[in-house]
């Protein structure tokens, strides 16, 4: 557990930089009127704070997991997110989840379990962090549903990013600040050079923000089934890309488990999306 917290605080500064880049992008976009900034009041702020806290925590723990284990394994664990969403919807929001949806999640749980048992890069830090990220993003979804407003998705995500940045700065400064000033910055710059150090932080932060903004915008504009297909294909692409590019070695059982988990996510997404479409039609 001590190792887990050590990893957590070592990665929080990187997460703050990512959020900071996204916030600068939002402020510049507002300054040029693309989009026009939507006003925010105290009531909306109270609704968005829990969303932003979950967003920040989910991002930090994702970075911890990416640093601790193979990227492909983190995304395999994060395939469990629909399971947490279903559980939270039924037991927290009181929504009835059909048995067909629960059955479609069984392959996800089984596949992730298979992959975890023989994953070559497995360690508890990476596993626990990915699970916390799942729970955080689940609660982010729940609070987002409660924060129903007429504000467009781009402005909503911009405010969430700003609040999340202010939430993440204090722990990063308290737990990592002294170490970064003493060793962290100098060690990183000595290893990769100042230019690459800054550019890598900038581009990862920019892509992270644009990805989340695009995902939010897409969900607002397309049918649930289309969005579900995109989510499944995204995870398949990321896992495959990480194995090919980073040379992540996986066992046969891990590969089978990952495939089973992704298939379960696909089945769950299709069933849920069709149910939502039927509700809209009726």
TrEMBL record:
<feature type="transmembrane region" description="Helical">
    <location>
        <begin position="232"/>
        <end position="248"/>
    </location>
</feature>
<keyword id="KW-0813">Transport</keyword>
<keyword id="KW-0472">Membrane</keyword>
<dbReference type="InterPro" id="IPR004696">
    <property type="entry name" value="Tpt_PEP_transl"/>
</dbReference>
<dbReference type="InterPro" id="IPR050186">
    <property type="entry name" value="TPT_transporter"/>
</dbReference>
<dbReference type="GO" id="GO:0031969">
    <property type="term" value="C:chloroplast membrane"/>
</dbReference>
<feature type="domain" description="Sugar phosphate transporter">
    <location>
        <begin position="13"/>
        <end position="269"/>
    </location>
</feature>
<feature type="transmembrane region" description="Helical">
    <location>
        <begin position="47"/>
        <end position="71"/>
    </location>
</feature>
<feature type="transmembrane region" description="Helical">
    <location>
        <begin position="83"/>
        <end position="110"/>
    </location>
</feature>
<feature type="transmembrane region" description="Helical">
    <location>
        <begin position="122"/>
        <end position="142"/>
    </location>
</feature>
<feature type="transmembrane region" description="Helical">
    <location>
        <begin position="12"/>
        <end position="32"/>
    </location>
</feature>
<feature type="transmembrane region" description="Helical">
    <location>
        <begin position="154"/>
        <end position="174"/>
    </location>
</feature>
<keyword id="KW-0809">Transit peptide</keyword>
<keyword id="KW-0812">Transmembrane</keyword>
<dbReference type="InterPro" id="IPR004853">
    <property type="entry name" value="Sugar_P_trans_dom"/>
</dbReference>
<dbReference type="GO" id="GO:0015605">
    <property type="term" value="F:organophosphate ester transmembrane transporter activity"/>
</dbReference>
<dbReference type="InterPro" id="IPR037185">
    <property type="entry name" value="EmrE-like"/>
</dbReference>
<keyword id="KW-0150">Chloroplast</keyword>
<dbReference type="Pfam" id="PF03151">
    <property type="entry name" value="TPT"/>
</dbReference>
<protein>
    <recommendedName>
        <fullName>Sugar phosphate transporter domain-containing protein</fullName>
    </recommendedName>
</protein>
<keyword id="KW-1133">Transmembrane helix</keyword>
<keyword id="KW-0934">Plastid</keyword>
<feature type="transmembrane region" description="Helical">
    <location>
        <begin position="254"/>
        <end position="271"/>
    </location>
</feature>
<feature type="transmembrane region" description="Helical">
    <location>
        <begin position="194"/>
        <end position="211"/>
    </location>
</feature>
<dbReference type="GO" id="GO:0015120">
    <property type="term" value="F:phosphoglycerate transmembrane transporter activity"/>
</dbReference>
């Amino acid at each position: 557990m001590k190792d887990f917290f050590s990893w957590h605080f070592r990665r929080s500064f990187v997460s703050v930089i990512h959020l900071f880049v996204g916030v600068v992008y939002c402020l510049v976009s507002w300054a040029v009127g693309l989009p026009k900034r939507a006003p925010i009041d105290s009531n909306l702020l109270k609704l968005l704070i829990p969303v932003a806290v979950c967003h920040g925590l989910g991002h930090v723990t994702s970075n911890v997991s990416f640093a601790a284990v193979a990227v492909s394994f983190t995304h395999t664990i994060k395939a469990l997110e629909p399971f947490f969403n279903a559980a939270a919807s039924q037991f927290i929001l009181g929504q009835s989840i059909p048995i067909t949806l629960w059955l479609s999640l069984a392959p996800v749980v089984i596949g992730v379990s298979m992959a975890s048992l023989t994953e070559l890069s497995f360690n508890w830090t990476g596993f626990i962090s990915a699970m916390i990220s799942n729970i955080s993003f689940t609660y982010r979804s729940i609070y987002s549903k409660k924060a129903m407003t007429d504000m467009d998705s781009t402005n909503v995500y911009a405010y969430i990013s700003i609040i999340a940045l202010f939430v993440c700065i204090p722990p990063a400064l308290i737990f990592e600040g002294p170490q970064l000033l003493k060793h962290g910055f100098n060690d990183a710059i000595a290893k990769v050079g100042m230019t690459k150090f800054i550019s890598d932080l900038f581009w990862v932060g920019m892509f992270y923000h644009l990805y989340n903004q695009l995902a939010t915008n897409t969900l607002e504009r397309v049918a649930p089934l289309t969005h579900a297909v995109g989510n499944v294909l995204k995870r398949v692409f990321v896992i495959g890309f990480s194995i090919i590019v980073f040379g992540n070695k996986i066992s046969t059982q891990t590969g089978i488990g990952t495939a089973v988990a992704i298939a379960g996510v696909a089945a769950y997404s299709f069933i849920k999306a069709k149910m939502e479409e039927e509700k809209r039609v009726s």
